[in-house]
Amino acid sequence: MIAKVFKSTLIVVTLLFFMTQSLSSQKAGWEITTTSSQNYTGIAAANGRIGILPSSKIFRTDKIILNNVYDKESPLGVSKILLGMNFGNLDMYINDEKLDNTNISNWQQTIDMKEARFTTSFTYKNIAQISYSIYALRNVPYAGYIDFEVKALNEITIEVIGKIQTPEEYKNPISTFRVLKDLETTMPILQTVAKSRFNKHTVATSSTFIWHNINSTRENQRPELTHKKISEYDNQLSFKKSIKAKESYEFAWTAAQCTTQDFYDPQTESERFVIFNLLTPKNNLLSQHKKLWDNLWKGDIIVEGDLPSQLDIRLALYHLYAFSRADSNLSIAPMGLSSQGYNGHIFWDTELWMYPPLLILNQDIARSLVNYRSDRLNIAKKKAINFGYKGAMFPWESDDTGEEATPAWALTGTFEHHITADVGIAFWNYYRVTKDKKWLEERGYPLLKEVANYWVSRSTLNNNGSYSIKNVVGANEFAPNVDNNAFTNGSAITCLRFATLAAKELNITPDQNWNKVADNIVIHKFEDGTTKEHSNYKGERIKQADVNLLAYPLDIVNDITTIKKDLKYYEPKLAKEGPAMAQSVFAVIYARLGDADNAFRLFKRSYEPNKRPPFGALAEAATSNNPYFATGAGGMLQTVIFGFAGLHITNEGIVQKKPILPKTWKKLIITGVGPEKKTYTVE
């Protein structure tokens, strides 16, 4: 009998051990934890509408970013994305002492990428353990949610102060506290409403506390709330609560931020979102958030045998998902929703770098990114007319209006024209993957037709029958106002050919000039056959990949001899201060050539020098400190998807050709690929 009990116990212990190991292994690929706040860069909790950037300081949020909400940066400046009202700064007192980083221990922060949850935990003087998790709710996209748990080791009294802090740049804030009531349901609402810096928008933020252990919101069942308005820019709501020893106390602070960019009445809408969060049980609210993230992670990249690479890849993909939404028809700025970097404008960074991985793994998000451009097609057509061209001419930097948003002093805004081809290429690739003929008819072809007409009008006929594209800034922005830039010309050729294919797909006769110009646009060469970056290029240092983009993704240079010559010639010329994604192009090409060592070397070089502690947020360059650079994330993901996994976007859809693995990787699995949600495994 004793032997049987021992055997049963051994089986249970063994099962528990393997279950624990399995859970630990699962978390290992999804969570990044730190106990160091040195040289700290946080990871944004974002949902495609708002971004919440945590701080290393307890109960502090560094900033809130609002997607697609712009006002002027200065009276004579261009547009700039808004810094939102900060609802993420709270204060907590225990036994009348304010908690901060100087009187706590065991500080730890964890980003759980699977659930998009950012958790901070610590101990206060061995009398309380506190943890809180920040969510940018995927299911309530204008709302944030901070969930708290206080474990009392001794009997304590806590005071918690929630705040709406309005940046000084806002105008005429009105801060209030009201208790709304419907029958016996009471809804306390802290609120601030203000005008953006130059009065373009009204911004409204509402917030409240939630107590999970109270079944209703009647006033006599919750702690007494105290409102204190420090100023119209600092609106506060607080409560006190005694907690017995060995007991846990749970509550949440939720807020919603709405603007006239998206709502006619942002003040009332922000209240409704908060009331929804207040009266929806926590488990229901957060399970909806988690379910939506589960759906996103059906498109995933799994690396076996190299946990650091797995975490780096997941963090990159997490950011692309966090900064976008399938239901928005919005695009992604280079810094996503982590900062106001580059004024929150939209560049080629989306179409050439972030969009391809998303097109492979989530066609709904990809559709939003291309629809962002087609929604602004008429503005692009006006720009072409205004510069003396035909068709549609897209801005180098775009905002909510679709007009050129680049500062006038930057030559890129006036001359970096390859953006128009980049947009067209993205459109045809969307159709190649989805085969959505209705979309092609309604959105795809109308845009492709206009951008093709632009390139015909933008090209100059030479005496020998060839065509030149003169006076441009190419992908290598160190060389402004040059003729026949390799990437500009190559992207124009590709775009013109794609427009012809799109027309034929719809049984429309394509303009014969599209192929005529495409077949005769000049691509210059050195005497040894190496592709020349522009007509007067003499070997100068380059900012980022330009010529090599003709091999990938354009497939214009496709003979192996030239591809290798171009790789060898241009890699040493890349500037150290150049952006992260430059090396990604080289990595993809080497992988497709079957050179796993060089591909992996450049894969790591494309982002590792740009990682910032403690979570590995990517800066734009090894020498800069402006995380999170979503463009770089897109580049390194392309190395994995289109290089190591060997996936290609073709007119027949997504196909796999000659995958190859780095030596340290045992297996690469990509799930949720394409409309059929296929899984590709490389061993």
TrEMBL record:
Keywords: Hydrolase, Signal. The lineage of its organism: Bacteria, Pseudomonadati, Bacteroidota, Flavobacteriia, Flavobacteriales. The keyword DNA repair does not apply. GO terms for molecular function: hydrolase activity. This is Glycoside hydrolase family 65 protein. Residues 314-537 form the Glycoside hydrolase family 65 central catalytic domain. It comes from the Bacteria. Gene3D superfamilies: 1.50.10.10, Glycoside hydrolase, family 65, N-terminal domain. It holds the Pfam family Glyco_hydro_65N. Residues 1-24 form the signal peptide. Residues 44-237 form the Glycoside hydrolase family 65 N-terminal domain.
